[in-house]
Design a protein that fits this description.
There is one protein chain. The protein has 293 residues and is of the alpha+beta class. It contains 10 helices and 4 strands; from the N terminus they run H-H-E-H-E-H-H-E-H-E-H-H-H-H. The radius of gyration is 31 Å and the shape is rod-shaped. Helix 1 crosses helix 9, helix 1 packs across helix 10 and helix 7 packs parallel to helix 10. It has a 4-stranded antiparallel sheet. The chain has 2 domains: 180 residues, no CATH class; 96 residues, Alpha-Beta Plaits (2-Layer Sandwich).
Amino acid sequence: MAGKSQPQKLKKRIFKSYLTSTVSISMVLFLIGMLGLVLLNAERLAQYVRENIGFTLVLNEGVQESEISDLQKALKSTDFVKSVEYIDKETAAERLKAELGEDFTGFLGYNPLLSSIDVKLFAEYATPEKLVVLEKKFMEYPQVKEVLFQRDIVNIINENVKKIGFILVFFSGLLLFIFSALINNTIRISIYSQRFIINTMLLVGATDRFIRAPFIKRSVVYGIAGAFAANLLLFILMYSYSSEIKGIVDMEDFKIFGIVFLADLVLGVLISWSSTYFAVNKFLRLKFDELFY
């Protein structure tokens, strides 16, 4: 009975070590997948931010509705305008009341605000250089009295978009290195628990390739399982918060999800294979008395 229980205990120990490796791989690949989604959607995020930059075209006093309608049509027909919103002076006054928390028209006795049109641009036109050109172009319309936009914020946003892109790439590389080291150490520990089995196989004349094969095969299988688990968890999380991240991640862009899935799968297999290969090689080179240290 004692002889039979020993192999069972060893099998359970080996299974637990590989299960720990699989869970570790899943968690690491989940984090890598999340970072990958952010990186692949970085341009979309930048576009989302830029397309929320726009102009306010303050209209002349007494401009007719037909003239306003003509101006809106003219703006919509251009290549650079994404959307327009007409705000009459009454609506503008209500919004300002809400912001100030008091009725300024009652104090002044009249509404000093003018009607305006909020213009949102396509992302490629929301750069400091093009905005200056567009400002002059908007002033050419006879219905427009003044053109307003936050020049300093535009410069800050464009500078920060570039910085964020660089930081994300650097941070991704650093995390990939750290996560690979963590998976590598986890797999090494699981192989360490089987070092005496490797030595026994050497003693009976097994070749290095023959000894490595089952370890690598098992490790790759667990790496694939970890990648599938990581992707499943990632997709569940993304769809659970799809409304919150709508402007950042496009849930209908299956191409990006496919790239992340394949990247996780390849990394899971590659890291598992390489870590197992080198870990087994290490114990193949050790003498029997060195196995105890």
